[in-house]
Amino acid sequence: MAKTPEVGAIAPDFTLPSVELVDGVPVRAARTLSAERGRPVVLAFYPGDETMVCTKQMCAYTNELDQFTQVDALVWGISVQDLDSHERFASRHQLGFPLLADVSHEVTGLYGVDGFGLGTRRSVFVVGADGLLKWKFVGLLGATYPSAAKIAEQVAAARV
């Protein structure tokens, strides 16, 4: 397994297709990390749509989206399922941020979280407005994840 990028390094850039609910309607678009320079981005890698812990995590981040908006951070959920799966997942749970489809495993590989047959390692990376990696959480077993408040705290600390 590739190593995760180090805090302080330039976050690996990528472009992935995404789906986001806009007024309840799924909208598909490409998302490029470097296009968001000037604003922090939270990359929440998760193993799979409609799995117990992933659903709990993505719903928690949606329910506490104000934690992220208070620090002007975007949130992107990333997994290896396709856009159709993401669209069903987002619609069923009314998720409040884009879900990006890394079906080629390229981005999970760049971030060192592709478990190669074991699934994506549940991980969160905070990319600062300057494009540098400011903080990371990489789960060992995939059953735990940082709270929205903890992530927002890290985003706020990165601005100091």
Features of the shown structure:
160 residues; alpha/beta; Glutaredoxin; 5 helices
Description:
By secondary structure, the chain is of the alpha/beta class. The chain has one domain: Glutaredoxin. It contains 5 helices and 7 strands, in the order βββααβαβαββα. A 7-stranded mixed beta sheet has the order 2-1-5-4-3-6-7. Helix 3 (83-93) links the parallel strand 4 (74-79) and strand 5. The mean pLDDT is 93.
How many structural domains does the protein architecture include?
Answer: 1
- Helix amount: 25-40%
Radius of gyration: 14 Å
Shape descriptor reads globular
How much of the residues is beta strand, in percent? 25-35%
What is the CATH superfamily? Glutaredoxin
User: What is the mean pLDDT?
Assistant: 93
Looking at CATH, which topology would you report?
Glutaredoxin
The CATH architecture classification is 3-Layer(aba) Sandwich
Number of helices: 5
In short:
Helix content is 28%, strand content 26%. It has 160 residues and is α/β, with parallel strands linked by helices.
Describe the SSE topology:
Blueprint: E1 15-22, E2 25-32, E3 41-45, H1 52-63, H2 65-69, E4 74-79, H3 83-93, E5 99-101, H4 106-110, E6 123-127, E7 133-138, H5 148-158
Parallel strand pairs: 3-4, 4-5
Antiparallel strand pairs: 1-2, 1-5, 3-6, 6-7
